[in-house]
């Protein structure tokens, strides 16, 4: 894990114009087309096994090491109200639920969330299972202490990522966290694809989207960032990256630019 405590001149471009969600760019016809393509992609790959979820023929071997590694990165979850978006069949849901006071597990593919529910509902009655599109969700301000996503943002357009960064800031309680992990630069799995609309962004693009958000006197502060080492070891893939951000007051640092400086520098060091 790389703490976000360094500076980088690239960050200046990322924080010159902090935004609110109601000031963000509006969706274009191209964005709507992208959403249709993403839905088509997951309907083609909507199996209910770990291999299907990870889009990899060696998924079971990867999952045995990658899942514990991802869970080891998370902040303390004891007693937390958690929102898990892109929950799928529940690779992480049960583990998160063991410590949380409540979990809302969401996925936009009904067959996946139904399997998740069948696997975990009886053991974890404090988990709710919801079929919903992350780009259309609305939650109450401060409703959650922790937001967890794994391979979600790379299936959203640039505008949708920006809106999600803003919405999740509102949904999270002050001092709460968000975790996200994405495939940067290239795909993670070797499963055949007839087409692939996934967005393999650079780390700087995610840093920019989260660094610029301002909602009711709060912003995101990057607290750690790093690679998923399982993929480096087993696949030679250094582009599996994760971030943890904390919701803090805008005046938590003397300079707002320092927050983005540290986040960008951490991304570049990985």
Please tell me about this protein's structure.
- The chain is of the alpha/beta class.
- It has ten helices and eight strands.
- It has an eight-stranded mixed beta sheet with strand order 1-7-8-6-5-2-3-4, with helices on both faces.
- Helix 4 packs antiparallel against helix 9 and helix 8 runs antiparallel to helix 10 (256-269).
- The termini are close together.
Mean pLDDT across all amino acids: 85
Low-confidence parts lasting 5 or more residues at pLDDT below 50?
Answer: 5-17
Count of DSSP strands: 8
* Radius of gyration, CA atoms, in whole angstroms: 18 Å
Order of helices and strands: EHHHHEHEHEEHEHEHEH
Strand order of the largest sheet: 1-7-8-6-5-2-3-4
Structural class: alpha/beta
Helix content: 25-40%
**Overall form:** globular
Portion in strands: 15-25%
Biggest β-sheet: count, sense, barrel?
A: 8 strands, mixed
Instruction: Give the end-to-end Cα distance, rounded to a whole number of Å.
Output: 9 Å
Number of helices: 10
In brief:
With 270 residues, the protein is an alpha/beta fold. 37% of the residues lie in helices and 21% in strands.
Topology diagram in text:
Elements: E1 2-3, H1 12-15, H2 29-44, H3 50-54, H4 59-73, E2 81-85, H5 93-97, E3 102-107, H6 110-120, E4 127-131, E5 144-150, H7 158-171, E6 172-183, H8 203-211, E7 218-227, H9 229-235, E8 240-249, H10 256-269
Helix pairs in contact: 4-9, 8-10
């Amino acid at each position: 894990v790389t703490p976000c405590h360094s500076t980088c001149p690239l960050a200046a471009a990322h924080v010159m114009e902090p935004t609110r969600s109601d000031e963000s760019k509006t969706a274009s016809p191209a964005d709507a087309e992208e959403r249709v393509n993403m839905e088509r992609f997951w309907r083609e790959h909507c199996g209910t096994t770990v291999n299907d979820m990870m889009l990899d023929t060696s998924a079971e071997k990867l999952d045995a090491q990658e899942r514990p590694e991802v869970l080891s990165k998370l902040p303390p979850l004891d007693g937390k109200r958690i929102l898990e978006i892109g929950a799928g069949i529940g690779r992480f849901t049960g583990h998160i639920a063991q410590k949380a006071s409540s979990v809302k597990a969401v996925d936009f593919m009904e067959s996946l969330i139904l399997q998740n529910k069948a696997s975990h509902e009886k053991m974890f009655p404090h988990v709710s299972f919801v079929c919903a599109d992350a780009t259309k969700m609305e939650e109450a301000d401060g409703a959650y202490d922790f937001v967890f996503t794994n391979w979600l943002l790379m299936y959203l357009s640039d505008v949708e990522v920006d809106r999600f960064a803003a919405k999740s800031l509102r949904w999270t309680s002050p001092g709460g966290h968000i975790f996200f992990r994405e495939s940067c630069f290239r795909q993670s799995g070797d499963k055949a694809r007839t087409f692939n609309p996934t967005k393999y962004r650079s780390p700087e693009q995610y840093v920019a989207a989260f660094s610029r958000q301002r909602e009711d006197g709060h912003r995101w502060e990057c607290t750690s960032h790093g690679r998923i080492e399982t993929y480096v070891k087993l696949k030679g893939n250094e582009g599996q990256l994760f971030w943890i951000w904390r919701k803090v007051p805008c005046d938590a640092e003397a300079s707002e630019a320092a927050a983005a400086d540290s986040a960008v520098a951490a991304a570049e060091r990985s």
